[in-house]
Amino acid sequence: MSSRELVVLGTSSAVPTRSRNHNGYLLRWDGFGVLFDPGEGTQRQMVRAGVSAHDVNAICLTHFHGDHCLGVPGVVQRIARDRVEHAVSAVFPRSGAEYWRRLRHATLFNDTRVIVERPVGGDVQEVAVDGAPFTVTARRLCHSVESYGYRIEEPGGVTMLPDRLAAYGLAGPLVGRLQREGRVTAPGGRTVTLEECSVPRPGQKVAFVMDTRLCEAIKPLAGGADLLVIESTFLDADAALAEEYGHLTARQAGRVAADAGVRRLVLTHFSERYGAEDEPRFAEEAAAAYAGDIVMARDLVRVPMPSRHRPGTASRP
Hints:
The protein has 9 helices and 18 strands. Residues 311-317 have low confidence and may be disordered. By secondary structure, the chain is α/β, with parallel strands linked by helices. It comes from Actinoallomurus oryzae.
């Protein structure tokens, strides 16, 4: 059974709290798993969330601050210990290759050969991720160190219209042939095209935007995303601190989502300076700029991808 969801493993920024672990996000996509920014404690959070090393097909790091990468040693060693056999792509900023090496080989263990390093550099780069059913694009953000955001996008397809197929007498192998070849001869002798029996189905898109100030790279990452996972480290009252340290406020995250036409917004990476009583304010400030679906990320929750159905695209007259 196909499943597309975000498993949230941690939601704190630089300092974990009693209720929030360091970062960690597993995007599950029809059996393919991308682990973003595994911070300290991610291996244990995976156990608590009911996911295993076998669920990880790629590890993507935005940058090498500790709250985004100190979980790498435990995750890599668990991949080796559990004898994961499939390739695991490791995507990280090329400029931090020395930090990756230290994390990758932090302690003695029976090493694994399945890790495939895919360093990224420059302003924008399409990343080869072994076995992925989608493309992965990295864009450089604006933080105090080199940092990248990621966009995941599957190819578009079509949705077949059963009433149109029935009207032309198409069923079984003829439908498969129509999908493969784009046209087929119906039982009555008429040539039927794929366009006559289907409507376009856009591929789903996910954007992952961590530590950054507002910058030009964010919009192409987030544009039209079904799911945007984005840092909202500060509240608006602390906007000056956000700018100083290279972060976003909740209101800015909401504005990004609105400008980019995002379908579901996931706020995360909250500063430890805020208590539980402050949490509703993050969603309120984001909602002041964005009228769509807002999710306040919490450790161990699962956030489903929005339905493929978009108003006005489910059927054709």
